[in-house]
Structures are given as structure tokens and as C-alpha cells.
Write a structure and sequence with these properties.
The protein is an alpha+beta fold. It contains nine helices and ten strands.
């Protein structure tokens, strides 16, 4: 089991710590098509518990809540299941609820420290007011409802055009013969088939590709979720998107804005929850609490 702790922008306002609030930690702006529920967005603190057995994660959070009774109260919570992105080449790429492999191009541990330092970990000198964040990261969370019944009525060929990848193997549509061995082939965004772009400009993979976003990438660690059914009997389910970025203003906000404005996949999604937290570095030897550098 792992537990990740983060601090929201409201925490710094509440306790007079504005001078120590990282510049990149701000209330997330509204993006096109957002239908955010304020009761399931934001928060002073973030607790993320991950485990192979969900009962272990639930009890970890429950015990932390119990210990904080009288000082803290739960604002909202979300139970997720099944990774929706792989973070190691030894892991098989998982599928999201739309049935497509998700996270093929995600940052992998095998990419090395250079990539992680560039895209994930806050570096010395990034923010003079937040030296306590060096070695930490920003956690961005978005609860995304997926219109599964609508998606299920879309032809397979159209689904693949929306995503930009083969549904069975996950290979980019720019390869001549999609198969399992081509899943990790680089995107060729200029490749053509039958006179048309093999990967449409508004395909999801094209919109979020590093080549179209100044080279920026983020470390995705999302999960599927289901909250039962709505009043019409439709499945209330989707993606609880979680990503870690060195600077959300460069590696998250612009990509999300492009996605909500230009991504063909947006037609089948609704963003209903949102939050951003500053995650301090791990507890060092001799520390007595998480985020000790901030509170000293």
C-alpha cells in the first residue's frame, strides 16, 4: 500500500501560509464543457491510498479520518479500480471503460531520471517561495463521466478515428499494419491513408501528443470508477483522472484546455469534478511528519 498526501490552495489561505504557497498551486480554472460539482471538487488536503486490495486502501483512509476527527472533515471521496495507465514497461497496458488501451505513451519508470526530473519532480529554483516542494510534484485530479451508452452505439472504425489508435492492439493508426508489436510505435501525425490523415487532427492522441504541446508530458495514474446508475438507469461511471506534473501551468493546464476545445473524444465525456494539490517530497530521515519543510 502507498499513501500520498497533498495540500490544496485553500489550505494556504486558511492558515495564513500564502507566502509559502507554490506559484503553480491555484484553483483550477474552468474549461470548456465543465459541469463541475463544487461539493466534489477542491479541498484543503488530499489523501490518496493505493493497494492491490481495495479493502486495505479503504481502511487506511478510514483510520486517518478517525485520527483527525474533530479537526478535519471529509469533503468528498472517490473509490477507483483498475489502473488506466501503465507506469512500467513490465506492465501490460490496461484498458479504460471505452475498451481502448490507455496510457500507451505514458511516462514509464524506464524512461529514467532525466525525464522524471523534467516532467514530474519539482526542481531546485523552480519557485523561490516554495523550496519545501523540491522533490515533490503537483497532483491534478479530474472526475470524468463517460457516456458509455452513446459510445457503444458508435461504429468501431469511428471509435478508432476518435482515439487515433487501433482498438484491439493499441497501435497508432499511422502504422501500415496495426498489431501487438506496433503498440509502442511513435505517432506519425503526417502519415496519410487514402488521401486523408491516418490520425485525424482532432483524434485524442494527436491533441495530447507531446509533439503538439511543446514536448510536455505528464505522469498519469488514473483509475476507472462506477457510482451505480443515474435516475434514467444509465451507468454512472467513467475515469477518475490523476496526473503528476512538475508545473501544471506548463504540463497540464494547456493540454487540458486543448483537449476540451479540440479533442473529438470530448463529445463523449463530461468533467464533473476537479482538484489540484501540491505533494511534498517523501518523508526524510529524521522528519516527524509529512511536509515538514513547509510547516517548520
Amino acid at each position: 500500500m502507498t499513501i500520498t498526501i497533498g495540500y490544496g490552495p485553500s489550505l494556504f489561505r486558511r492558515f495564513g501560509l500564502e507566502t509559502r504557497r507554490p506559484a503553480g498551486l491555484e484553483d483550477l480554472p474552468r474549461f470548456g464543457g465543465d459541469d463541475l460539482d463544487p461539493a466534489r471538487s477542491g479541498g484543503d488536503l488530499c489523501i490518496q491510498a493505493c493497494a492491490d486490495d481495495p479493502q486495505v486502501a479503504v481502511h487506511a483512509v478510514r483510520n486517518l479520518i478517525r485520527l483527525g476527527f474533530g479537526t478535519v472533515a471529509v469533503r468528498w471521496s472517490q473509490l477507483g479500480f483498475g489502473r488506466t495507465s501503465s507506469t512500467s514497461t513490465s506492465q501490460a497496458t490496461p484498458r479504460n471503460l471505452f475498451g481502448f488501451k490507455d496510457g500507451t505513451a505514458n511516462i514509464k519508470s524506464q524512461d529514467g531520471d532525466d525525464v522524471l526530473e523534467k516532467e514530474v519532480w519539482v526542481q531546485d529554483g523552480d519557485d523561490a517561495a516554495a523550496g519545501w516542494m523540491v522533490g515533490g510534484s503537483y497532483l491534478a485530479a479530474r472526475k470524468i463521466h463517460m457516456y458509455l451508452e452513446v459510445w457503444d452505439r458508435v461504429r468501431l472504425s469511428e471509435q478508432e478515428q476518435v482515439i487515433g489508435r487501433d482498438k484491439r492492439y493499441g497501435a497508432p493508426l499511422s502504422v501500415a499494419d496495426p498489431s501487438a508489436e506496433h503498440e509502442f510505435d511513435a505517432l506519425d501525425l503526417s502519415a496519410r491513408k487514402d488521401g486523408e490523415l491516418a490520425i485525424p487532427k482532432d483524434a485524442h492522441v494527436a491533441v495530447v501528443a507531446p509533439e503538439n504541446n511543446g514536448g510536455h508530458r505528464m505522469l498519469r495514474r488514473g483509475y476507472n470508477y462506477t457510482d451505480g446508475n443515474d435516475s434514467l438507469g444509465r451507468l454512472d461511471a467513467g475515469l477518475f483522472f490523476i496526473a503528476f506534473a512538475r508545473d501544471p501551468r506548463a504540463g497540464f493546464f494547456p493540454i487540458l484546455r486543448k483537449m476540451t476545445e479540440k479533442d473529438a473524444l470530448t463529445e463523449y465525456l463530461q468533467h464533473v469534478g476537479s482538484a489540484l494539490f501540491a505533494v511534498p517530497p517523501g518523508v526524510a530521515e529524521g522528519d516527524t511528519m509529512v511536509g515538514q519543510r513547509l510547516f517548520e
